[in-house]
Amino acid sequence: MAPGGLVRSSHCAQSGGMDRRISARRLGELLDDRGAGRPAYQWLADGVRQLVADGRLLHDTRLPSERELVGELGVSRTTVTRAYGVLRDRGFASARQGSGTVVQVPGGPVAGGGEPLPTGPVQPIDVDAIDLTCSAPPAAPGLASAYARAVERMPSFVAGAGYFPLGISELREAIADRFVARGVPTDPDQVIVTTGALAALAAVFRAVLRRGDPVVVESPTYPNALSTLQHAGARVVGAPLIPADRDEVTAVHRRVGARMMLAMPDFHNPTGLVWSESDRDRVARVWREAGAIGLVDETMSETWLDAEPDVRPMAAHAPDCVTVGSASKTLWGGLRIGWIRAPHALIGAIARARTSLDLGAPVLEQLVVADQLERGGGLSAESRRRLIAARAALLRLGERCPGWEVDTPSGGLNLWWRLPQPRSTALVAVAERHGVLLAPGSLFAVDGAGLEARVRTPYAVDELVAAEAVDRIAAAWAQVSSAQ
After folding, report:
1. pLDDT for residue 61 is more than 80
2. For residue 453, which of 84, 275, 315, 473 sits 20 to 30 Å off, Cα-Cα?
3. Contact (Cβ atoms closer than 8 angstroms) between residue 167 and residue 191
4. Domain 130-137+380-482, CATH
5. Contact at 8 Å (CB) between 462 and 7?
């Protein structure tokens, strides 16, 4: 069970009938203050409904018994009975023999919704499978309330045509303020809002690259970014992971005459590596000497778990670099809001390229992200607790699968395992038959080959799902290794 007695799953994996429950104490902590003028049963029913809407109580979560809740909340048995009855009548709960009252999402949860990879299915093949191809957490607690506040703001916008190709002003200002707070002077004119980080990358590629231009990319790398770069017609050149010898990185840039380097300095996907201050200085110097544009992917920058890294953004070391980010890893992938921060010399070209791709991100979602950034943004404390618990559960693969090794990252969303045998592709095939979807190491290779002794296991799932995944993967690995 997760800390505080609350257990939940991710949208990237199905629960498979696992026992998910919430304690009376934890439910009491999550409920808002009752206030005056509202019947106690209505307060309790409305509070549970809001927790379901916010994604803090998931489908099939067992609610406390009426007796437990009476003792915790100090209300009458009649109050709890009536509140549970209201929840059942409105489709937010059901009574099950032997399980008591269980939370329901009206209409049931929507299957799929995971992050599609270039060579994988858009949706899981089997809705009962645990999908560990997806490296994105569920929606942040309170997101439904942020949507409600955003809807209240919509009358200010619907009188106009609704096109904001560069983004609404308040979101651009919030993003610029966030860079300033991190030590990177930025004005809103340097910010463009996009429909996610991949759209941001595509706009930058279209603005500055010509077909056949060499672009240096660390290997392994995030496959969707690599696919976007290849579709832009660039010539992709692999480079060693940072930290690497500066002379080696410089040599790659000089050998190919690099036009650009695509980098992820913060909780690199899939390895979880974070560049040190000296790493950032060294790479910034390489870019200056090579005349290359640094393109920095910050989508993972705020996914720290154990302690926030004491490093400045790459733009503080390389003021002429271009930075892309998004709300998908900290707020919710379904928001589809990303952004670009670029130097003044490039922002005009990127803006023109951006409008050749689409005419702007949805206003409602922009308002939601602005609301959340102004309230702090980043991962919530509750989200961090859940990710830490799931990471700990998946780390047990090292005990269950002899010879598996991993460098535990201090943040990010993935574990990047070293296998004792180069059998990653075989493991993926067998694991699917055991009900787990994985991505082979080769998917993360710049040239699409090699890395057969690697496999990525995202921990953006709840602790129960992660534990079940360990059992299934261990059974699959035993079958693969015995067939050697």
Report:
1. yes
2. 275
3. yes
4. 3.90.1150.10
5. yes
